[in-house]
Design a protein that fits this description.
Ferritin, flat, mainly alpha, 68% helix
Length: 254
């Protein structure tokens, strides 16, 4: 079966109906057998609570790396602002945009192997999005440095975001996925990216960083375009597969 399409009928042993005789025996044995360990869902709940109480969290925002950063932090505290929250979220966006570059590098590799489809992504547009992600990474680096923070440090929110989204780069790097499947992974990333930029802009304005918020808005405008493109490419890819289930849906990469 060609990997260009994903919904073709073929050998699949994951369903229980693949072997009705054996599956009947398995169900009967499962019903007869006692639980493999004592306890129930409440036991799991209590263990999770215990671990949560003992854990130290995902880390901390590092102290300012310059005198300018110390001064800005002190000034923020005098105004009743916890500037570390802003630094934390800036670090999150920096890490996410850096990963975004890698995601679109992966998508370009898939394009070279599988080609695109009518209404699908082109090398030119994928490269443009990659360049946008790289420029947003540079914006976050510049912003953090301007606030006296260390852009190479992983903040708690950056750590959390990496854990939450780790399936996206894994899906794109997987040799078994094609370009259309990568669009589904990119859709998850772009939805998160857009919502996170919106949150960062609101936070920046709330803290009085209007000039930064205006620059962040330009980044959000570009991300909104990325989301629209990925959604359109994915919709066209699914429709193409549905119309031509017995033939390859790919065409040479433009």
């Amino acid at each position: 079966m060609s990997k260009d399409t994903v919904a073709d009928m073929g050998l699949n042993r994951t369903g229980i109906k693949t072997s009705p005789i054996d599956s009947k025996d398995i169900v009967q044995e499962a019903q007869r057998a006692p639980p493999s360990s004592p306890g129930d869902a409440q036991g799991i709940h209590r263990v999770r609570q215990q671990y949560a109480r003992e854990a130290d969290g995902l880390g901390h925002v590092p102290p300012p790396s310059s005198l300018k950063g110390v001064a800005k932090t002190a000034a923020g505290l005098l105004k009743g602002q916890k500037s570390t929250v802003f630094i934390d979220k800036l670090g999150e966006r920096l890490a996410f945009e850096r990963t975004g570059v890698r995601l679109y590098e992966g998508a370009l590799s898939k394009l070279e192997v599988y080609g695109s489809w009518e209404g699908g992504p082109s090398r030119e547009l994928l490269t443009k999005i990659l360049d946008d992600e790289l420029s947003h990474f540079a914006l976050m680096t510049e912003t953090l440095q301007g606030l006296g923070a260390d852009p190479t440090a992983m903040t708690p929110s950056a750590d959390l975001s990496a854990v939450i989204s780790q399936g996206v780069p894994a899906a794109i790097a997987d040799a078994r996925t094609n370009l259309r499947q990568c669009m589904e992974a990119l859709l998850v990333a772009e939805l998160t990216d857009n919502a996170s930029w919106e949150l960062l802009i609101d936070l920046a304005r709330g803290l009085g960083h209007d000039t930064l918020a205006d620059r962040f808005q330009l980044a959000l405008d570009a991300e909104a375009e990325h989301l629209s493109l990925v959604k359109g490419w994915l919709a066209a890819g699914v429709a193409t597969e549905a119309r031509a289930p017995l033939e390859s849906a790919s065409v040479p990469a433009p």
